[in-house]
Structures are given as C-alpha cells and as structure tokens.
C-alpha cells in the first residue's frame, strides 16, 4: 500500500556477484622531491559483477580517490 492505493505484491531477483579482486603488482614508477609519486598497477584478475569506477589510495590515513 502506498499513496496511490493498494496493489498485489511483486517479486524480483537480486543477483549478487563476486567482488572485485585487488589490483595486481602495485609499483611506484616515479617520485619527485617527495611531493609527487606515480603509482601503476595491473588490472585485477576478476572485475566482479560491476565495472570498476575508481580506486581509493590511502596516504597517511587519508583516502585519495583516483
């Protein structure tokens, strides 16, 4: 029941897939004056059930979204 009235119930399915595996082989590729660091990695083996939208890199307890 809602503001439009009462109706028969409906059923649906929620598909839960595998979670994404972590990136492989993280590598610091360059560093400049301890202020800029370039990091690269290989795409995970399993992308799970959804595409990867971004990665979160943690530096000194602060998350940096890439």
What does this entry look like structurally?
It is a single chain. The protein is mostly beta strands and 66 residues long. Helices cover 0% and strands 36% of the residues. It has strands spanning 24-32, 36-42, 56-59, 62-65. The strands form two sheets. It has a two-stranded antiparallel ribbon with strand order 1-2. Strands 3-4 form a two-stranded antiparallel sheet. The chain is elongated and about 65 Å long. The model has no long low-confidence stretch (mean pLDDT 76).
The geometry reads as: elongated
Order of helices and strands: EEEE
Continuous helix count = 0
Number of strands: 4
Fraction in beta strands: 35-45%
Biggest sheet, spatial arrangement of strands: 1-2
Would you tell me the overall average pLDDT? 76
Alpha-beta classification: mainly beta
Strand and helix map with partners:
Blueprint (H helix, E strand, L loop, with lengths): L23 E9 L3 E7 L13 E4 L2 E4 L1
Antiparallel strand pairs: 1-2, 3-4
Structural features:
mainly beta; two-stranded antiparallel sheet; 66 residues; 36% strand
Write a concise synopsis of the structure shown:
This protein is mostly beta strands. The protein is built from no helices and four strands. The chain has a domain at 24-65.
């Amino acid at each position: 029941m809602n503001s439009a009235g009462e109706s028969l119930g409906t059923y649906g399915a929620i598909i839960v897939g595998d979670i994404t595996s972590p990136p492989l082989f993280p590598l610091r590729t360059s560093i400049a004056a301890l202020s800029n660091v370039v990091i690269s990695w290989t795409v995970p083996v399993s992308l799970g059930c959804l595409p990867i939208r971004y990665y979160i890199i943690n530096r000194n307890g602060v998350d940096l979204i890439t």
